[in-house]
Every structure is written in structure tokens, then in C-alpha cells.
# Entry
Amino acid sequence: MTLTHYHTTDWADSATDVARHEGLSRFGKEVVHEMNRLGMLVDLSHVSANTMTFLI
# Structure
């Protein structure tokens, strides 16, 4: 599942939009943890560097 595309979402900052969360919001962190629990792939395409840093 992709976290963003062209615009920052309520849970993650996009690489092509104004950052609002310094990466992931609290909800975004919960989403990523749940995706990991389920074995889903987290698509890093289009996310900001700060969003990627949390996921590494």
C-alpha cells in the first residue's frame, strides 16, 4: 500500500507537497505498524525523506 502520492495525507508527508508531520503522524505510525503486523508491503514511492527515515 502506498502512503502518499502527490499530496501530503493525514498520516504521511509527500515528497512533492508541504510537510505537515515531520514524516508520519501518530496515526501514520499506527498504520505502518499494523501493515507490518499483517505482512503488507509499505510503498515508499513519493513519500518525503523524513517519512522514509521512520520506516528504515
About this structure: Helices lie at 26-38, 49-55. The chain has one domain: 1-56. The chain has a mean pLDDT of 93. Residues 40 and 56 are 15 Å apart (CA to CA).
